[in-house]
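Dear colleague,

Following up on yesterday's call, I've attached the two folding results inline so they're easy to grep. Please treat them as preliminary; we haven't cross-checked anything against experimental data yet. The first protein's sequence and structure tokens come first.
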Amino acid sequence: MKNEDIWKKYDMEVDSNTKSEIKKEIIIKYISLVKIISGRLYNYYASNIEYEDLMSYGVIGLIDAIDKFDRTKNIKFETYASIRIRGSIIDQIRNLDWVPRSIRQKSKVLKDAYEVLDQKLGREPSNAEIAEYLGKTESEIKSMFDETSIFNVMSIEDDFKDNYKIQLKDETIDSSPEASAIKNDTLKELQLAIEKLSERDKIIINLYYYEGLTYKEIGEILKISESRVSQIHSKAIVKMRNQFK
């Protein structure tokens, strides 16, 4: 059955049992998408979680996507589901709270150093300048950015939820007109923060978040190492967080 046909059948079905069976068909049809996204994220979380767990979290996101997908909007289900699946996996991992305290501390040290130097220099500080400020080598700073990369990604989402009371990948927590206005303003600020990034940073942000590529795949495109992509990505996130400070 073609994708369009199965969705029409699902939307029109009124019998709950039959609708449930059609839903199972849709899940089976798109389970490969869960496998792809789980596989990509497993590259980063392998030392902390099993691939099967990521798959189960992803299936939760897929089911949620099926329940909330609006076919009247001009968006492919694959695109919408990918966001839901990835978000579900990261949310579940965040709930496990497995990030070591040392990683949290390193992230804060980098963020604070970046903020001080940014204000002092009036521009983005280099790794060498951050290293000098913290009394470390440039190699140590690169390693710190590499180690804190995933935590920085999760913490910027937490910043938005805690400080702006919104979830960027979903509906507002508060659906009032005031909350919607705040979300729209914040999204505009986020867009401006991205526009202030260098062209290379923008490319990496776009490839990682919008195209769903891994660091390895991005590195192959940009002809740089996977570790270097991780460092640039982490620094870009720190930079964006500083814009919202």
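Below is the second protein, in the same order (sequence, then structure):
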Amino acid sequence: MHALLILDMQVGLVHGLDKPWRGEALLQTLNSLMDKARSAGAPIFLARHIGPVGSPIEPGSPLTMIVQELKLQGGEVVFEKRRPNAFAMTDLADNLRAHGATGVVITGMKTQYCVDSTCRAARDLGFDAVLIADGHSCSDTPVMKAQDIVAHHNATLDGPFCRLVRAEEWRF
């Protein structure tokens, strides 16, 4: 069984100054994936990235809260992380195994940080890693447009680090 993992869909990243590319479409995709996961009885995990005390994303900051556009129903596991890799210094791997998950479907933000590092780590930890091609995003950087960052990571990660699947084609 695969669990759904949604990374850092929090107020400060989704509604901050640098809006994510295709942000509204991403929210719709994630809500659809959560519906599919619930229908299949697959667990849903949501990560919130927090920073040190005194930072804008310190523990308890409203900027770290999951955006209200995601339709949570109370059965999801929400956890905090402090590193880009959602497995680092968290109990995510143990929690996935405790829920019977042998695979993890990776979505959320930001493509070049948390999505990338979590994809790379998942397979190393023995999970079948699936990246939803249209289920992650980021914002433009001074060097590259977000659309190109997403395309680059989809191409780079597919194969060595994960299986790339479009949201409409994924079945839990």
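For the second protein, one point worth flagging: The helical segments are 11-14, 23-40, 92-98, 111-124, 146-157.

Best wishes,
A.L.
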